Amino acid sequence: MRGSNPLYARVAALFTIAQLDGEDSHGTIATLASAPGMREFALRALADRDDQLHGINAALFTNSLNDSNARVRVQAAIGIGHL
């Protein structure tokens, strides 16, 4: 997902990957959690499905609680609740 594409397109692609690959997409999505603008959406995609929480790195969520972006912090807190 190149950063030159509109945010809405990158977010749609992110959730499509999550739906198509399920738990196999966790590595890719976790990588996107470090991309500016994609962090909040990556955290949500990781913890969105209660039946696909196995193997998710909880540290990704706890570290995101200190993010400068309030929306990322909210998604991190919600994700921790799901985990």
Overview of this protein structure:
The protein contains five helices and no strands. The protein is globular and about 30 Å long. The mean pLDDT is 90. The protein has 83 residues and is mainly alpha-helical. Helix 2 packs antiparallel against helix 3 (39-47) and helix 4 (58-64) packs antiparallel against helix 5. The termini are far apart. 61% of the residues lie in helices and 0% in strands.
Class from helix and strand fractions: mainly alpha
User: How can the largest sheet be summarized?
Assistant: none
| Helix content, binned percent | 55-70%
How many β strands by DSSP? 0
Query: Distance N terminus to C terminus?
Result: 26 Å
Question: Can you give the mean pLDDT?
Answer: 90
Share of residues in strands = under 5%
- Overall shape: globular
Uncertain regions: pLDDT < 50 for 5+ in a row? none
Instruction: Give the number of helices.
Output: 5
Radius of gyration, whole Å: 12 Å
> Which sequence of SSEs, written as H and E, runs from N to C?
HHHHH
